[in-house]
Predict the 3D structure of the following.
Amino acid sequence: MTTTPLQRRALGLTVPTVLLTTLATAFAAPPAQAHTPAQSLAHPPLAALPAVAAASAVRPPTELPATGRYTVQEGDTLWDIARAHGTTLAALYAANGLGSDSIIYPGQILSLSAAAPAPASADAAPAPASADGAGYEVAAGDTLWSIAQEHGITLAQLFAANGLAPDSIIYPGQTLRLSAPPAAPAVAPAPATPSAPDTYTAPQVVLTDEQTANAQHIIRVGRELGVPDRGIAIALATAMVESRLINVPAGDRDSIGLFQQRPSTGWGTPEQIADADYAIRAFYLGTPHTNGLLDIGWEGLGFGDAAQEVQISDYPARYALWEPQAETWLAALG
């Protein structure tokens, strides 16, 4: 389903029909602080974004303290905790079995102990580029998850072959090496190592006053744009997965706001995305550089699949887990 001219005028820009998928964005719950209101999406259109720069070097992880635990406080993010304790996000993930889209809660205890790295083998050889020795050139819209899926390898293998971590950024034009499946002595090739299961769950949530206000805002804009109830429920579930329904000022990499939209992938300027009204309308209607829910033929997709088409997450199965609660919030608030 595409937007009507009236809906496009409400957004203040023309919504493209060509899908420019965004890079992977996974969520780390940042502090719930007031943002600086920016221009509403109903006013001046988005400024054209500059082309993405070349990939920056991956930072080596800083060694964690030998022992210690930390109790999560209100407003903490994994990035803040890692910085405060002199380590990296990747090391904090590894110490606690977390991923780039994990959610933390006040009172949760995190381990600050890092397992000692295994010594490098003197005769260890780097992973081969791919089965035929070639690399893969990153295209616009690729994510590490989609590249691994396309080439029949796991994220862990792709990370290892390229010295990447869950918080690494990839860019169009960058060349990645692909892990080749192990050589099989028999005719049949050895099966690929399966990916670790995603253990994310959707706990029963009683919305706070702040979360309730943001849910009502999402519902109100959806009603104004004529979005059916199921589409509004998808928006509520997406915002819960991405930001816990809090208009956070920062997140994983350059992600901002209720839907953790990224300036670097075309969602708008940081000031625009920090405006809750803008972010909500952008999720529904898209921008000149991204597709929103109403651009993707969402009615023919599953609940979680529709959210994934907009968000392009490394964890596409998480949105559907919130469907029952999202429908309950909509019934109570909308």
User: Anything to note?
Assistant: The mean pLDDT is 75. The two ends are 23 Å apart (CA to CA).
